[in-house]
Amino acid sequence: MKVSILTVVFNGVQTIRQCIDSVKDQDYPLIEYIVIDGNSKDGTQAVVQSYGDQVTRFISEPDAGIYDAMNKGIQLATGDIIGILNADDFYASRTVISEMVAAISAGDFQGCYGDLEYVDSVDETVVKRKWISGDYQKGAFLNGWMPPHPTFFVKKEVYEHFGKFRLDLGSAADYELMLRFIHKEGIKVAYLPKVLVKMRIGGVSNSTLRNRIAANRNDLKAWKTNNLTPRFYTLWLKPLRKIVQFI
Question: Which residues are paired to 34 by β-bridges?
Answer without folding.
Answer: 6, 57
